[in-house]
């Protein structure tokens, strides 16, 4: 008999078949693995961490007209079908609802350690070489410009402004990716983020050299 985690893996793979490559099963798998690595250094519920990591982007609002209610609904229906305890379901749904970068101004001051872990893992997958690849893939998906020297990054955007933004891919580094290192919650998250942050800085240096044909 398969475990709940094994069933969740199968469910997510099926649900995200054909998804945009930066938010597909492989993203979920990486966040799951990173979450387990961070969870090993924290006192937490392994079940909540793994389920939340696997389900956190089951219906990313970016691909559902900004609707943030779809993912929790899908996750609840699935978890109830797996006979997961209600208190575990509530904790997983809380993470799904509050993990996003754009929602960071709306979350409670005190966050459960499981959310901190999965949020760190999700943010770590948004930076470094993988983060660069995901960012350019999504920019191409949206048909955004790679870079325009005349368009400056828009810092301190509100949630609505962030959701509606169609800025350049390079500006996204300054509007989000380079900010993530200092938003890590856990010691392990900070450690893992530093190397990837430094890699992005090196990439940007090289990008601007090549853009300007130095």
From TrEMBL:
Task: Tell me a Gene Ontology molecular-function term this record carries.
Answer: hydrolase activity
Query: Where do the HD domain residues begin and end?
Result: 24-127
Q: Report whether Signal shows up as a keyword of the record.
A: no
Q: Which domain of life is it from?
A: Bacteria
Native species: Chryseobacterium luteum
The protein's matches in InterPro entries, at most eight in alphabetical order, are given as:
HD/PDEase_dom, HD_domain
Entries under PROSITE patterns matching the protein: HD
A Pfam match? HD
Protein's name in the database? Phosphohydrolase
What are the record keywords, sorted? Hydrolase
**Highest classification ranks of the organism:** Bacteria, Pseudomonadati, Bacteroidota, Flavobacteriia, Flavobacteriales
